[in-house]
Amino acid sequence: MNLPELFDYKFYSDRYPDLKNAFGYNEELLKKHYLVHGQFENRKFCNMPDDFDWKKYINDNPSVFNTMETKTKKNAIQHFLTNNNQINTTPLTPYVITLNKPIIILYYVFLNSNKDWKNMIGGQIHDIIKSKILDVTYRFHIVVSGNKNSIDELKYFLRNNYNNIAIDYTEVYENKYEFPAIKKIRDLAIENPDKIFIYLHTKGMVFNNPSSLRTLTESKLTLNTFLDWETTLFIFETYPEIQKAGMVPNKEGFIYFNFWWARGSYLIKCDPIEIKDTYEEQERFICESWLKTGSFTWEDTYSVIRKQIYAYSDNFDMPLWKETPELFM
Fold first, then answer.
1. Pairing of strands 137-145, 103-110
2. Domain range for residue 87?
3. Which of 31, 46, 61 is the last residue of a domain?
4. 107-141 residue pLDDT tens
């Protein structure tokens, strides 16, 4: 993740007393703080007007922000500052979020007693909280799979540590992989077709993780799914043809790793899920590509990294997989 070109470390320190007390004007430490924490907490990195409406600024200047890729919060702020505000400010079409609290988050949790699941789950929820997306979230629903005692322990843990979050639960007492979560998100979409849904899960709780802690891959998936959520939501509001979004879209229409955004109206079109008594292990892959079944194309899919459609990338060649682990711990 790159530092904003206009990052002002002295402003950043002066703006936030906790940083001033901790780092003074230590430029390197302030830069690192912004990369590790500040950007996820929506802290201001330069002297912007407090009432600056970046979405309205984009809509008021269509000749500048004339492609999907240019329509980001970062680009609006940078352009506003580098042009000394010498640009059209006459209102054209005001930006209005069409739904009050348009987001529904569904989080699938698998409780593995051999892992430090409190570290994993607490880390993911902390990342969601500090992004401030809950300010526009209508419902936060957890589908949790485990035995009754472990599920009760999870609910007690979340209630004690995150009691300011209203959480709905669906409890599953047998391992049915992600099928109950996929079924639930589609059911919620039928009830709320006008909402935007975000799906994530406890990646690394079972497979491909020799550690008992969070994996670097999961940390990056969670952070990047929520990091620039204001831009992603703006794209959904601005481009009705965009039906889904995620870090690594596939040409067939699903999102690698199963961390994604989608319209409720799109999820209704995806294949219905019937819960069976038992599943073969290989059947879990049905859930990982289920999102494609509403269109079987990536022509309606926005890359939250590349800020455009048709943005396929191999899982291993993206720079974001090569960041240093300490930035995400």
1. parallel
2. 48-96
3. 46
4. 999 999 989 999 999 999 999 998 999 999 999 99
